[in-house]
Design a protein that fits this description.
Blueprint (H helix, E strand, L loop, with lengths): L10 H17 L2 H8 L15 H9 L18 H13 L6 H14 L2 H12 L3 E4 L14 E5 L3 E12 L6 E8 L2 E8 L5 E5 L9 E12 L3 E3 L4 H37 L1 E2 L2 E2 L4 H30 L1 H28 L12 H13 L4 H13 L7
Parallel strand pairs: 1-4
Antiparallel strand pairs: 2-3, 3-7, 4-5, 5-8, 6-7, 9-10
Helix pairs in contact: 1-4, 4-7, 4-8, 5-6, 5-7, 7-8, 7-9, 7-10, 8-9, 9-10, 9-11
C-alpha cells in the first residue's frame, strides 16, 4: 500500500486543524497559560498539577478527547494524520491536559486487540482519561525489564512494584500498567484510585505537565482488566510505539512553530543600533534555520502519521526519524527563541520559558535524538559489531 497525496491531509483534516486553532486561540492565549501554570516562580515550590478541567470538558463535548478511539468503541476514530495535526495545535499553545497520555493509551489499547482492551476503550470514549505506566527506573519502556511484578490467577491479578516517569499521572483516571509475571509481560488497566495505588509526584521543569512515580502495593484487579495477557504485552507496546513517538513529535512541531513566530515578531520590533535586530544576519540566518528545521521535522511527522494508516510496515522507521528530527529541532529552536529575546528571554515574566521547558521535556520523552538514530541504524544496517 502506498501513501496518499499530501499524506492524506485533506479537507476534513484542514477543517479540524482550523477549528482547533480557533478554539485554543480563544481559550488559551499566552497570558491565560501563564496565569494558569506560572503563578509561582519559587524554585523550591511543591510539584503542582495545574490544568483547566472546564476546557477539557469542552474538548470532550467536541469529541477531541477520543480521537484515537475507533468508532466501533464509541470514539471518533480519526486517522493518524488527523490526530497528529490536532496534537500539533495543542503543542502550539502548550496545552496542559491529559490529552497526550490518553491518546497514547488509546493506541496501546487498540494494539492489544482483546475484549478486555476494547472494554477500556469504551470507558475512554465515555469520560475516562488514561495514562501509560510502562517505564522502569532506567527509563526503558520497550524492553523486557519492568519494575512491576504480577501474580496472575484465573480470576484476578495482583500487582506490586513501581512505574516511573508516568506522564500526567495526577490528571488521569486509570493507568495501563506493564508488569511481568511467570508467563511474561502483560498489560493491566488499573484505576488511579484503586486501593494500594500511590502516586508520588516528581518535580520537573515543564510547568505544563506533571510527572510521577506510581507505586503498586498488593493492587488486585479482575481478569476483565487484563488488557494484554502475560507474554503479549510487549507486542502491543511495540505495535503502538510508532504512534506514541509520532504524536510527541507533532507536539514539538507545534511548540516550535510558536517559538518561531514569536521570535520573528520580536526581532521585527526590538531595535538596536537604530535598526530592528532582525535586520542583522546574526539573527536572521539562525531564524531561517529554525524555519527549515521545523519544516523538515513536520514533514517527517506527517510521513510517520500517514505510515501508521497506510504503510504500517514502514511506520516504526518513520517514527524514529520523526522523533530524532523533532528532538534536534526542539533543542535548536528553544535555544534561539530565548537567545533572540535577549535578557528578557531569561525572565520568568517572558512567556518563552513555558515553551522552552515543554520542549526540553519532550526532547527526551521516550528517547532523545541520539537514541532514535541508533535505533534506526540498527533497523536499517543491523547492530554494530565491536572491532568490525
Amino acid at each position: 500500500m502506498t501513501q496518499p497525496k499530501d499524506f492524506g491531509f485533506g479537507v476534513e483534516e484542514q477543517l479540524l486543524q482550523t477549528e482547533a486553532r480557533k478554539f485554543f486561540k480563544k481559550q488559551l492565549d499566552e497570558l491565560t497559560l501563564m496565569e494558569l501554570v506560572g503563578g509561582n516562580s519559587d524554585p523550591h515550590r511543591d510539584s503542582e498539577c495545574l490544568w483547566d478541567e472546564k476546557m477539557w470538558e469542552q474538548m470532550a463535548d467536541l469529541g477531541w478527547t477520543t480521537m484515537a478511539v475507533p468508532e466501533a468503541f464509541g470514539g471518533t476514530g480519526m486517522s493518524g494524520v488527523a490526530v497528529a495535526s490536532f496534537i500539533e495545535e495543542t503543542g502550539r499553545v502548550a496545552l496542559p491536559s491529559p490529552l497526550m497520555a490518553t491518546v497514547n493509551s488509546s493506541y496501546v489499547l487498540s494494539a492489544c486487540g482483546t475484549d478486555e482492551a476494547d472494554s477500556v476503550l469504551k470507558e475512554i470514549a465515555g469520560d475516562k482519561t488514561a495514562g501509560l505506566a510502562i517505564t522502569n527506573q532506567k527509563g526503558s519502556w520497550c524492553s523486557m525489564d519492568t519494575d512491576v511484578s504480577a501474580v496472575v490467577t484465573e480470576d484476578k491479578a495482583t500487582l506490586n512494584g513501581m512505574a516511573w516517569f508516568v506522564q500526567d499521572a495526577r490528571k488521569v483516571d486509570l493507568f495501563l500498567v506493564k508488569a511481568e509475571s511467570e508467563a511474561g509481560i502483560g498489560l493491566y488497566a488499573v484505576s488511579a484510585d484503586a486501593p494500594g495505588v500511590t502516586i508520588l509526584p516528581d518535580s520537573i521543569v515543564d510547568l505544563t505537565r506533571d510527572q510521577a512515580r506510581v507505586n503498586f502495593e498488593g493492587v488486585a484487579i479482575g481478569a476483565d482488566k487484563i488488557v494484554a495477557a502475560p507474554g503479549k504485552g510487549n507486542l502491543a507496546l511495540d505495535a503502538a510505539e510508532p504512534a506514541i513517538l509520532t504524536m510527541i513529535s507533532a507536539d514539538m512541531c507545534g511548540a516550535a512553530e510558536w517559538q518561531l513566530q514569536t521570535t520573528v515578531a520580536y526581532a521585527k520590533t526590538r531595535m538596536q543600533f537604530e535598526r530592528p535586530i532582525g535586520f542583522f544576519q546574526a539573527v536572521k540566518h539562525p531564524v531561517v534555520n529554525m524555519m527549515i528545521m521545523i519544516d523538515c521535522a513536520r514533514s517527517l511527522v506527517f510521513n510517520a502519521a500517514c505510515a501508521i494508516d497506510h504503510e504500517p510496515e514502514q511506520a516504526k522507521a518513520a517514527a524514529h526519524m520523526a522523533k530524532a528530527a523533532a528532538s534536534d529541532m526542539a533543542a535548536f529552536c528553544s535555544g534561539r527563541s530565548v537567545q533572540y529575546h535577549g535578557g528578557m528571554g531569561f525572565t520568568w515574566e517572558c512567556f518563552v520559558h513555558l515553551f522552552f521547558k515543554r520542549q526540553i521535556h519532550n526532547q527526551v520523552l521516550f528517547g532523545d535524538a541520539a537514541y532514535h538514530r541508533a535505533e534506526l541504524a540498527e533497523m536499517l544496517i543491523g547492530p554494530l559489531v565491536a572491532g568490525g
